Amino acid sequence: MIFALMALVVISLAAVALVRSVDTSSLVIGNLGFKQDATTTASQGAEQAIAFLNGATATTLQSDQAAAGYYAASRDSLDVTGQGSTSTTRAVVDWMGDGCAFYGSGTYGTCVTASPEISLNGGVNRARYIITRLCATEGAPSAIDCATPVGSAMTGGGNKGFTDYKIRNVRLTVSNSQYYRIVTRATSARGTVSFTETMIQR
Prior knowledge:
The protein is of the alpha/beta class. It has one domain (2-201). Helix content is 27%, strand content 26%. The protein has 1 helix and 10 strands. The protein has one helix at residues 2-55; strands at residues 70-71, 78-79, 91-94, 110-113, 118-120, 125-133, 153-157, 168-172, 179-187, 193-201. β5 and β6 (125-133) form a beta hairpin.
């Protein structure tokens, strides 16, 4: 009878351990699901940022459009997550729409405005983005230093389809365009936060 009671106690303890293990697994799976949901939301936010760039004129993109979350210079001191630097001269992003009240006074130099909030899935998921043009300053790309693709160039090669080994030059032509960096911050239903970074050429 004592052995039966001991066996019952052992089985009860094993059952409790199993329930705790299942609960922990459910939490982990749930967190991964919400993280994926936030990342998907961030992707949709990036698509809206690309739509903004495609709808803007070249002249519009030469100067900051802070209300839309667009900046015509690269802003090298930008700390997009707020955790990448402790410098008091860093630029931080107002992801919450509260004028950077989240950051302590004196912990940053500039508060950069993000785009208006994008509401997705009936308001359950939310996203904001900032776009920076990879140029040194505002202005026309021809007058300032910008990160651009390599222009027209002659390159050796192009032997495919020929029966000899003569070196031929091939002209590669790339249109005059700039690079843009899009950083999106998304929040899912449980408050899970996801950041994504997208580089595009336009």
